[in-house]
Specification:
The complex is a heterodimer of chains A (339) and B (282). Chain A is mainly alpha-helical. Chain A is built from 15 helices and two strands. Chain A starts with a helix and ends in a 6-residue tail after the last helix. With 282 residues, chain B is an all-alpha fold. Chain B is 75% helix and 0% strand. Chain B is globular. The relative contact order of chain B is 0.13. The chains are: A mainly alpha (339), B mainly alpha (282). The interface between A and B is large, with 89 and 89 residues. Chain A: It is a multi-pass membrane protein. Chain A: It is found in: Cell membrane. Chain A: It comes from Halorussus limi. Chain A: InterPro entries: MetI-like (IPR000515), MetI-like_sf (IPR035906).
Chain lengths: 339, 282
């Protein structure tokens, strides 16, 4: 297209007028095509984010009003968020690491003199929820993707895929409500689970961390299965035969050949599950109790009942930071394109 | 295999047994996941026919709740006319959003497909961002923005926000189609005497149509289903998800079950039919 335009321009002897030149310029089409979206995304996406970023440096006034005049600006919200009172930045980092260690190592050791702020604890808990939801989705979803992509009869593959995508199109809130019904006391499911040890039939499973996890996995597992399926679908399975001809058993062939080849799908799926799970707001709100709220609920509360907009904005940008970190890791270790 | 297995350890024998049944085990696991995906939906629809005002336990079949709601009666605080006006709002917002985001998004996809420009990587990143950032951040930042510029909140601000994230969805879907598109067909059309407009009308557009339809459907679903962004920027208006959210907050009732069952059946029916005609979407 471009070369054609140039040659036509050269044919014109007297030289085109400015209007004609603009009309024929290769970049006119670009400008026309890009302007509406660029304008929209700039005004209604980037500028609002910028406003929020600016607010995160503000202060809350004595009556809950927001002070964002230049003289009030500073890192106080981030300090409040990350650094406990009377602690230094170094102490805050050490307390946070120690707190994580205490949570992971099954001992009663106290590693540090203090705890990280409740906000940091909440943030780390949300990341934990996101990671666990990702892990469960992977553990449960990978075999399904493998089954659909490799073992299921060819003629049913499309149908099986559609059946995985279909719930994604049904309303998000309605599906959360459906989970709520199932996990409530005296529901079909809670009554049927009576055979489990330590569980009394009919007992409600709602308003718990378990309920939040079920909700997260239920909503996001298709986003794990689909990319993994896409990866498995592309694998040349004669490689498996080759590995087995060379003496590998089925498990080794899978672990050393097939699984690594499906990694791009696993990494993409993990990102697609981790990001929305960590930033979840509705699921913990509807399924979780006071104990299982996540950072999304904290942000909403700061902009609502708690009424500390600058702190909420700082929380939002902390959450954004986690997402960007996840994406950066993905771009470093995963394949180049997202979604 | 069978001759060698005699002098192997019980563990190795068990392992090879598992491999023998590996396909079946995977099928069972897959079936359980499908059950997990559909059981809540099935139970929800079944309970909407349950002849009981409070209990989650099956008490017998009735269409009483459907009849009452369709007749305009309020069932357990679910007011059908409020639900209907919320539905109308949702559809209005979604239609405006789809038209704007399909036009803008398709144009943007063209620009990204056919031009290289400095900063393209960064720009593409910004285009993807509305999909990736948490909806709560997007909703609240828009709320702050509308507050500052002094725009009154309502259906129009909701549509503005929906267009902002739907442009991204449409762009990605159409761009995927454009990148698989054989550009020599356009050159052939021009060699045969078509001008730019004719080439677009008779060659490019028909080839892009499935991508545009898929993008529009996705955009509609995303707008129609969005709760979080809408919740913050719609002021005191209602859409169906917001209406539904306030109902769910009040607990499980037959009225909510009926509304939920209707939403599920209609959306899945529409998408099922669309997939039937267009093949798997997205």
């Amino acid at each position: 297209m471009a070369s054609e335009h140039k040659s036509r321009e050269r044919d014109v002897e007297s030289g085109p007028s400015l209007r004609q030149r603009i009309r024929r310029s290769r970049w006119t089409g670009f400008a026309v095509n890009v302007t509406p979206s660029a304008f929209w995304l700039f005004v209604f996406f980037l500028v609002p984010l910028g406003v929020m970023f600016y607010y995160s440096f503000g202060q809350r006034g004595a009556f809950g009003e927001v002070l964002v005049a230049p003289k009030y600006l500073g890192l106080q919200q981030y300090r409040l968020f990350f650094v406990p009172e009377d602690a230094s930045v170094f102490q805050a980092i050490w307390w946070t690491v120690a707190w994580l260690l205490e949570a992971i190592v099954p001992t009663n050791l106290q590693f540090a003199a203090g705890e990280p702020t409740p906000y940091v604890q909440l943030t780390l808990k949300s990341i934990g929820y996101g990671l666990l939801a990702t892990l469960v989705s992977f553990a449960v979803g990978y075999p399904v993707a493998y089954y659909v992509g490799r073992i299921a009869p060819e003629e049913y593959q499309d149908l099986l895929l559609v059946l995985i995508i279909l719930p994604f199109w049904a309303s998000f809130l309605v599906r959360i409500y459906a989970i709520q019904i199932l996990l409530s006391g005296n529901s079909v499911l809670t009554n049927a689970l009576g055979f489990l040890p330590f569980y009394e039939a009919g007992q409600s499973l709602m308003n718990s961390q378990f309920a939040v996890m079920v909700g997260l996995v239920y909503i996001w597992i298709p986003f794990m299965i689909l990319p993994v399926y896409a990866s498995i679908e592309e694998i040349d399975f004669t490689l498996q035969e080759a590995a087995m001809d060379l003496g590998a058993n089925k498990l080794q062939a899978f672990r050393k050949v097939i699984f690594p080849l499906s990694m791009p799908g696993v990494v993409a799926g993990s990102l697609l599950v981790f990001i929305p799970s960590t930033g979840a707001y509705v699921i913990p709100d509807l399924l979780g109790g006071t104990n299982s709220q996540m950072i999304g609920n904290f942000i909403a509360a700061q902009f609502g009942a708690a009424g500390n907009w600058p702190l909420g904005a700082a929380g939002s940008f902390t959450l954004m930071g986690i997402m960007l970190l996840a994406i950066a890791l993905y771009q470093k270790y995963g394949s180049a394109d997202i979604a | 295999m069978s001759t060698g297995s005699r002098n192997r350890s019980p563990f190795a024998r068990l392992r090879s047994r598992i491999f023998e049944w590996g396909g079946t085990l995977l099928a069972v696991e897959a079936a359980l996941v499908y059950l997990f995906l559909y059981l809540p939906i099935v139970v929800l629809i079944a309970l909407s026919f349950n002849d009981s005002r409070y209990a989650l336990v099956w008490q017998g079949f009735t269409t009483e709740w459907y009849e009452a709601l369709l007749a305009g009666e309020t069932v357990a605080r679910v007011n059908p006319s409020a639900a209907f006006s919320a539905l109308v709002h949702s559809v209005e917002i979604a239609l405006v959003t789809v038209v704007a985001s399909v036009v803008f998004g398709t144009m943007l996809a063209f620009a990204l497909d056919r031009y290289d420009f400095p900063g393209k990587g960064l720009f593409t990143g910004i285009v993807y961002m509305p999909i990736i950032i948490p909806s709560i951040v997007m909703g609240i930042s828009l709320l702050l923005f509308f507050n500052i510029v002094g725009m009154s909140l309502g259906l129009h601000t909701a549509a503005i926000g929906h267009i902002a994230f739907d442009i991204s969805f449409v762009t990605i879907v159409v761009l995927a189609r454009l990148q698989r598109f054989d550009r020599t067909l356009e050159e052939a059309a021009k060699d045969l005497g078509a001008n730019e407009l004719e080439t677009f009308r008779y060659v490019t557009l028909p080839m892009l149509k499935p991508g545009i339809v898929a993008g529009a459907l996705l955009a509609f679903a995303m707008s129609f289903d969005d709760f979080v962004v809408t919740f913050f920027i719609i002021g005191n208006q209602n859409t169906l998800p917001i209406f539904f959210f306030s109902m769910v907050r009040q607990g499980i009732t037959p009225g909510v079950n009926v509304v939920a069952a209707l939403i599920i059946v209609v959306t899945m029916g529409v998408v099922g039919i669309a997939q039937w005609f267009e093949g798997p979407i997205w």
